[in-house]
Amino acid sequence: MRPFQEHSFKLLFETNSKKVFNISLNIVQHVEDAEDITQEVFIEVYRSMKGFNEKSDISTWIYRIAVNKSLDFIKAKKRKKRNAIHTQLFHPLTGKQLHEAPHIEHPGVVLENQDRVRILFQAIYQLPENQKTAFVLCKIEDFSQKETAEIMQLSEKAIEALLRRARENLKKSLGIYYLQGRI
Predict the structure, then answer these.
(1) Residue 113 Cα to chain centre, angstroms
(2) Residue 134: other Cβ atoms inside 10 A
(3) Terminal CA-to-CA distance of the chain, rounded, Å?
(4) Using CA atoms, how far apart are residues 40 and 152, in angstroms rounded to an integer?
(5) Is residue 65 domain-shared with residue 104, that is, in the same domain?
(6) Are 88 and 98 in contact (CB under 8 A)?
(7) Which of 48, 60, 84, 183 could link 177 by a cystine bridge, Cβ 3.0 to 4.6 Å?
(8) Does a structural domain hold residue 95?
(9) Containing domain of residue 176, as a range?
(10) Residues near 58 by beta carbon (within 8 Å), at least 6 away in sequence
(11) Quick check: 88 and 131 in contact, CB under 8 A?
C-alpha cells in the first residue's frame, strides 16, 4: 500500500471504527464478537476500496458492510445451533434448561440498569432481522431514517414501516414491563 493510501485507510478506520463496533455490538450483543466483526468489516473495506462506486457516502457504505457482517454472523450462529444434532433444550438427567436467551454484554450500561437493558435487548434480539436492524440503527445508533434507508438499501417508507412494526412487537413482548414502568 502506498503511503497516501495507508494514511487514507488509517483515517477511514479512525473515523468509523467506533460506530462500526457499536452497530455490531447492538446487533450481535457480545463484545468479543463485535470486535471480530469490526475487524472483518475493515478487512472487507480494505479489499473492496477499488470497487467503491461513490453512489453513497463512504461511511454509509462501511456501515452497510457492518450491518451485513453482523447479520451474517447471527445467521451462521443460528445455522450452527440448528445443525448441532446433539443439542438439547433440557439436560436429560436433571431436566434443567441448558440454553437461555442470549447474554447481553454491553460496556456502556450502568450496573443498576443492566436488568432493564438485558430485558430490552432480549426483546430486540427476538425481532425479525429487518425490524431489529432498523430499530438498532435508528433508535440505538441514532441514525436518521434517511441514513438507515441508505444503509439498509430500502426506502424511507419501508424503514418507517419496519420501525412501526418493531415498536408494536416490542410492546407486545415487553407489555408487562411497560405496565409496571420498568422499561
Answers:
(1) 20
(2) 29
(3) 50
(4) 19
(5) no
(6) yes
(7) 183
(8) no
(9) 100-183
(10) 12, 52
(11) no
Question: Quick one: 48 and 118 in the same domain?
Answer: no
66 & 107 share domain? no
The owner of cell 455490531 is 24
Report helix, strand or coil for 126: coil
Helix axes 58-83, 31-48, angle to 10 degrees: 130
Cell of 94: 436433571
Total domains, the chain: 2
Are 45 and 65 in contact by the 8 Å Cβ rule? The answer is yes
**Residue 27 DSSP code:** H
Q: Which of 45, 65, 87 is the last residue of a domain?
A: 87
Residues 126 and 171 in one domain: yes
And the C-alpha cell for 46?
A: 480494505
Same domain, 112 and 60: no
Grid coordinates given for 8: 487514507
Buried b (16+ CB within 10 A) or exposed e, 6-35: eeeeeebbeebbebbbbbbbbbbbbeebbe
Report which secondary-structure segment, H or E, holds 28: helix 3-28
